[in-house]
Amino acid sequence: MGKDPEYTVPVERVPYYAIKIYPVIMGTFGGVKTTKQFEVLTDGGQVIKNLFATGETANKVIYNHVYMSGSSVQFALTSGRIAGEVAAKQL
């Protein structure tokens, strides 16, 4: 099919992970306040137990600081992973 052999190598180690990503234009300029572990904070700065905000709902940390092309996807994946790890430790 004319594909470069450098990029058509077999995947031989498990587990495999795959996600569908659909490019869209969106953004939340603000978001809710969170800790570095994405735990949601009250107006008074107290952690709301078992409530996490990730991705666009907690996106205040990157807008106006970086070029935004594709960064929403990266931030959603990264913040979701961090929040998931913290939530799992609290079980």
Automatic annotation (TrEMBL):
Does the keyword Oxidoreductase belong to this entry? yes
Q: What Pfam families would the database entry show?
A: FAD_binding_2
Task: Please list the cofactors this protein needs.
Answer: FAD
GO BP of this protein:
steroid metabolic process
Boundaries of every FAD-dependent oxidoreductase 2 FAD-binding domain copy = 9-71
* Record GO terms (molecular function): steroid dehydrogenase activity, acting on the CH-CH group of donors
Q: Which UniProt keywords apply?
A: FAD, Flavoprotein, Oxidoreductase
The record's annotation in PANTHER family points to: 3-OXOSTEROID 1-DEHYDROGENASE, FUMARATE REDUCTASE
Q: What is this protein called?
A: Fumarate reductase
